[in-house]
Design goal:
Layout lengths: L1 H22 L4 E2 L2 E7 L2 E10 L2 E13 L2 E7 L24 E3 L8 H7 L3 H16 L8 H16 L5 E2 L2 E9 L3 E9 L2 E2 L2 E2 L2 E9 L10 E6 L15 E3 L2 E9 L4 E2 L1 H5 L6
Length: 271
């Protein structure tokens, strides 16, 4: 009975916390921040909370490389929890390497690709680390105002990265095969594109007129009616329906290299 009561109390706290985070999305908290060095500036953040997540320890270094401010994340020691949902690894290896985040990296560079690979939650956590690092600098630190300004600049640059499609998780929700059609149903967790974000985003890669042993030439992208209050598109409408319910779909023909332009024109540019 005590366990059941504790579960109910936790659910109530979770609801209040969700409302708090919705009202103050930039709210952050931490247990402590240890200043490791000043040349370059390096801090270790313990118990950093941001966006509903808590990381045990995040090791961050700030330095100027050329004309750019670069934030370096040191990988966790063996046995420690990963501070990021997704930590990119060099091609052909599973070993974690330090991540150098340069918001002013040239388009098409490896540094720009690294920034594109960050999940929304990880990008939020990195920006929170900049704020925690700046707020925790000792008052008597030489050039403290300069470091605080640099961290503020870096945090702003990370918030103004070029728009790319990001998501925390991806799940294959359903694989369905009928005699004349088939689809893969994907569910993305916490996706974002620029300033737009969704709790979840679902779509199906579908095909009609299938034949055994051949990939069909009539693929479709299907966007089912959102179960949440926030639709996938600003201009989503019920274009068709199947046994799963209403959907908006975009159709293609790979034989004639054609697509249904009329439906694309129904979408606004952001969509």
């Amino acid at each position: 009975m005590q366990h059941q009561q504790a579960v109910q109390e936790k659910q109530g706290v979770d609801v209040r916390l969700s409302k708090l985070l919705a009202r103050y999305p930039d709210f952050i908290e931490w247990e402590r921040v240890d200043l490791i060095s000043t040349t370059p500036l390096r801090s270790q953040m313990h118990g950093l909370q941001a966006g509903g997540r808590t990381v045990g320890m995040l090791d961050v270094t700030l330095e100027s490389i050329g004309q750019s401010l670069v934030l370096t994340l040191t990988p966790p020691a063996q046995g420690q929890d990963h501070p990021l949902l997704y930590w990119p690894t060099p091609l052909g290896t599973t070993a974690l390497a330090a991540l150098q985040l340069n918001p002013t990296a040239a388009a098409g560079s490896a540094a720009a690709a690294l920034l594109r690979s960050l999940t929304p939650a990880d990008l939020h956590m990195v920006r929170a680390a900049c704020a925690a690092m700046a707020d925790s600098l000792p008052a008597d630190l030489p050039e403290r105002p300069t470091w605080v300004q640099r961290l503020a600049t870096l945090r702003q640059q990370l918030a103004q990265l070029p728009r790319v499609w990001r998501y925390d998780t991806v799940q294959l929700k359903l694989e369905q095969v009928h005699h004349d059609s088939e689809h893969l149903w994907f569910a993305l967790g916490n996706p974002s594109y620029g300033a737009r974000s969704w709790p979840s985003f679902e779509f199906r890669l579908s095909a009609a007129n299938i034949k055994p042993g051949q990939f069909p030439h009539l693929p479709k992208l299907e966007f089912p009616q959102a179960t949440a209050s926030q639709p996938q598109f600003e201009n989503w409408f019920e274009e068709s329906q199947d046994h799963h319910g209403p959907k908006f779909e975009l159709r293609f023909d790979t034989k004639s290299v054609a697509m249904d332009i009329g439906l694309w024109r129904a979408l606004i540019p952001n969509d």
